[in-house]
Amino acid sequence: MGEKRAGAKSGDADQRIGRRGLLIGGLVAAVGCAAVARRELGHLWWRLPGVEKPRVAGAVDFRGARWVAASPANYRRADRPDDYAIDRVVVHVTQGGFDSAVKAFQDPRHGAAAHYIVRKDGHVTQMIRELDVAFHAGNRSYNERSVGIEHEGFVDRASSFTDAMYAGSARLTAAICARYGIPVDRAHIIGHVEVPGTDHTDPGLHWDWPRYLRLVRAAGAASARPHATA
């Protein structure tokens, strides 16, 4: 979610190819559109009867997370990373409370939702499976390639970002990076403001990126250590 820039365009760029786009233009345009259409169909294989992968109701991708389903209108079913490679984590701030963010993501009229919300106390709620494409970044390509994490609070209030929130979010991001082989650096863990074409400013100047990356690396190292056995 996050604060929008004044005068910037709004709306999520995750839109399907229109029929008009396939009809307009000459032979060159038609060939180009056909190539794009074939790529689209290649990402929709799971819609064929008997092909869609089984899903367990209420299952979460991050251990310890609580499942609360977002409206299906706010994401697109997929089979990532098989159909879309995942190589980014996008950090958001809700610009409001936890409950209001959950309600917004459950509202089909909202048109957007992130995969996760992290509360101030560090609790993690998952609303969209990582295999699905959440409409969170305002850029179709980045939606398809990323996992979106919202954080309860406001971009202009440093007090929003508690120790518990940083720790809980870092464990979540470390698990996502380990699952998909994402490097823990600022090129691959980014803010919503850094998404091309975005109209948002989150996570804002008060988000402590050096601290966050240290915590993510530490959480990743801790989870990678073999557990002692009796």
From TrEMBL:
Keyword Methyltransferase: no
PROSITE patterns documented for this protein: PROKAR_LIPOPROTEIN (PS51257)
Regions that span the bilayer: 21-37
Assigned EC number: 3.5.1.28
CDD domains xref list: PGRP (cd06583)
Keywords: Cell wall biogenesis/degradation, Hydrolase, Membrane, Transmembrane, Transmembrane helix
One Pfam family this sequence matches: Amidase_2
One example GO MF annotation: N-acetylmuramoyl-L-alanine amidase activity
Catalytic activity: Hydrolyzes the link between N-acetylmuramoyl residues and L-amino acid residues in certain cell-wall glycopeptides
Protein name: N-acetylmuramoyl-L-alanine amidase
Provenance organism: Streptomyces adustus
